[in-house]
Design goal:
alpha+beta; Arc Repressor Mutant, subunit A; 3 domains; 3-stranded antiparallel sheet; 17 helices; 17 strands; 41% helix; 18% strand; elongated
Length: 471
């Protein structure tokens, strides 16, 4: 395959907003409700004669997302009826937005945003009954934000990274939990492949994607499928259609031909008022009240603390640990100490947390005391790890633990030399290996000595005595 092909991807991402009530009625918005058809009313089930009322908090949430992405907030906006016939659409139309979205332009993760608008979610079809299906209307009418990007993404990884960054932003703004596994965030891919960088190929949409990893795999699969068709002269087989993603087969499959806007017969909803957002909201106040975004936070951590990018990402992804790290860093002050502290948090504390969910953040003062003991040479790194494993369970002074468990670093040359000699005497095979030219064998002895002293031996002195005693 000598020909070069160019991939273009645009994303359509839906996210359910975490408002108390639904988009156009007072029903509870509860994504965790397990009983079917309990959070419903005549409005969200489309009984004749009912009238919708706009949820102001949902509109505000979309405005806040727009402000956080540097987008333009519309002055005028309206809701439209998007007409189509599926069992999960009780009205036979969905209230959405077409010509006048709330948000346009903007950028996130170096990807241009076309628009962000607001609509109502559909009901949920249940196909687990064999020869018939049921519909649960609990989700019908839940506020649903839709973000559409420009077709400026050129790889599967870029697509996945954008989705992850949007999820983070929605959580930082506290407008959506955006859990993909619960269907609170749904990503749809629009992919085309062309042999001309200035011309887009036939666009294919991929739906039914339930994780960011699946977003990347679905994109990779489609790129490969279309590239192979083009490369073998079967480009005509690429048609504008909607395809689904089959997680078990790791492949896409054809669902239906892709609808155009005309197929939906959009028109303004006559039951809802037009909105003039600058009159309904104090946009400047909303801008000032925005929390720090993940991107701004990354830059601040990099500039203020000088820590590794991998450490920064740990704090961005886990907001609670990030806030705790900032308290620690503020108390320590010294950048070198902060880097050491960050290493213990991301390498050791997070490791402990993964192995035991009941692990809690240690008392800030205790952790700072631990880091000071390490940097002052009072305890070894191994002893520090042991003490950390204790203070994430009980609230106790690291110095007291070190004293009680004999973990204070031993610098008594005579006592240490005796321990080193005992380890040498007990390991003739390792000594022979070392003297045979394998210098790394020395580290095996260091490890045994550190174990013998519960990590309290000064490792620099240990290596010095080993080399002296081994000639």
């Amino acid at each position: 395959m000598d020909k070069k092909y160019y991939t273009t991807i645009g994303l359509e991402i839906h996210a359910e907003l975490s408002t108390a009530s639904k988009m156009f009625c007072g029903c509870v918005n509860n994504p965790d409700e397990e009983k079917p058809n309990v959070n419903i009313c005549p409005v969200c089930t489309a009984h004749p004669g009912t009238l919708p009322v706009i949820n102001k908090k949902a509109v505000e949430s979309v405005i806040r997302v727009g402000l956080s992405t540097g987008s333009r907030i519309a002055d005028f906006t309206e809701f439209d009826r998007k007409n189509y016939f599926y069992p999960d659409i009780p009205k036979a139309y969905q209230i959405s937005q077409y010509k006048f979205p709330i948000v346009t332009d903007g950028e996130l993760n170096n990807v241009k945003i076309t628009r962000i608008h607001l609509e109502e979610d559909t009901a949920n079809n249940k196909h687990d009954r064999g020869d018939y299906s049921l519909v649960d209307f609990n989700r019908a009418g839940v506020p649903l934000m839709e973000l559409v990007t420009e077709p400026v993404i050129h790889s599967a990884k870029e697509a996945g990274d954008f989705g992850r960054e949007l999820q983070l932003l929605l959580r930082y703004l506290d407008v959506s939990e955006a859990n993909m596994e619960k269907g609170e965030m749904r990503v749809e891919l629009n992919i085309s492949v062309s042999d001309n960088p200035n011309t887009l190929g036939t666009k294919v949409e991929v739906k039914n994607i339930n994780s960011f990893k699946a977003v990347e795999r679905a994109a990779e699969y489609e790129i490969k499928r279309m590239t192979e068709l083009l490369d073998t002269g079967r480009g005509s087989e690429i048609v504008q259609e909607t395809r689904g993603w089959n997680e078990s087969k790791q492949s896409t499959f054809s669902q239906r031909s892709k609808e155009n806007a005309n197929d939906y017969r959009y028109f303004p909803d006559p039951d809802l008022p037009k909105l003039y957002l600058s009159q309904a909201f104090d946009i400047e106040k909303l801008q000032k009240e925005l929390p720090e975004t993940p991107q701004v936070r990354r830059s601040r951590y990099r500039n203020d603390y000088g820590i590794k990018d991998e450490d920064i990402e740990s704090y961005i992804l886990d907001f609670e640990i990030g806030q705790w790290f900032e308290k620690v860093a503020s108390s320590l002050g010294d950048k070198e100490k902060i880097k050491i502290a960050s290493n213990y948090i991301t390498s050791d504390y997070i490791g402990l947390k993964k192995s035991n969910e009941s692990t809690r953040l240690p008392n800030t003062e205790n952790f700072i005391e631990l880091i000071n003991m390490v940097t002052e040479g009072v305890i070894s790194s191994r002893a520090a790890k042991n003490i950390l494993a204790t203070i994430v369970v009980i609230d106790k002074s690291p110095r007291k633990i070190a004293e009680d468990e004999d973990l204070l670093q031993k610098n008594d040359e005579g006592a240490l030399k005796e321990i080193v000699q005992n380890v040498i005497d007990s390991n003739p095979e390792v000594i022979a290996t070392y003297r045979g030219g394998k210098a790394n064998a020395l580290m095996s002895l260091v490890g045994q000595i550190m174990k013998e002293t519960k990590g309290s031996a000064n490792p620099v002195m240990v290596q010095k005595f080993l080399k002296e005693l081994l000639g």
